[in-house]
Amino acid sequence: MSQQRALPQSKETFLQSYNKRLKDDIKSVMENFREIIKTAKIEEGTQVSRTTQGQQDNYEMHVRAANIVRAGESLMKLVSDLKQFLILNDFPSINEAINQRNQQLRSLQEECDKKLIALRDEISIDLYVLEEEYYSSGYSLCDTNNLLLCEAYWRPEPTTSSPEGLAMPLVAAMHGADLMEEA
Fold it and tell me: What angle do CA 10, 16, 21 make, to 5 degrees?
């Protein structure tokens, strides 16, 4: 992002107007502050009475303080405008942020998929061990020469990992094969 990109004329005009507003507001703050400091000094030899001069200085300080506040508010509005300009017109960074978020979500998806596959494999192994224990025990209602439930129910899994390539029950596959033979 360190390289300078050529901005369209409208964006360049906006930036120039923002720069001019910034300089004008800072100049206004500085001038009014200087004048307040000058007004705070007491002059010895004046033609007006001290009370009148005090009232005039007080009024001038209030006006200049109001000018400083107005310039400060204008600067705050300028900052808000600059933020809005940046948010609305900085498409490369918006696209980069979207791409980074997509990469994060894809890596999270891959990590979740790997964990799910590992969990499926662990459960399959545990189920195999449990079925083997069940069929070899005295509680089994089946003949021990029969296939284990997991071997009889699930056919071997294909090498693809797409959702369409997931293993389907052998019973359903056998039922489909029976229907094919009858036809």
Answer: 125
Measured distance CA(130)–CA(149) in Å, rounded: 10
pLDDT of residue 8: 59
Q: Look at the alpha carbons of 145, 134, 118, 109 in this order and tell me if their dihedral is positive or negative.
A: positive
Cβ within 8 Å of residue 14, ≥6 positions away:
85
Residue at token pair 């959702």: 163
Is the distance from CB of 127 to CB of 150 less than 8 angstroms? yes
pLDDT tens figures, 17-61: 989 999 999 999 999 999 989 888 777 766 667 788 888 888 999
Cα(10)–Cα(85) distance, integer angstroms: 12
pLDDT of residue 151: 53
Summary count for the chain: helices (H), strands (E): 5, 0
Average pLDDT of the chain to the nearest whole number: 77
Q: How far lies 64's CA from each of 29, 31, 33, 100, 158, in Å?
A: 9, 9, 7, 50, 82
Alpha-carbon gap, residue 85 to 66, rounded angstroms = 28
Query: Which one has a higher pLDDT value, 57 or 174?
Result: 57
Q: Compute the C-alpha angle 47/51/56, nearest 5°.
A: 80
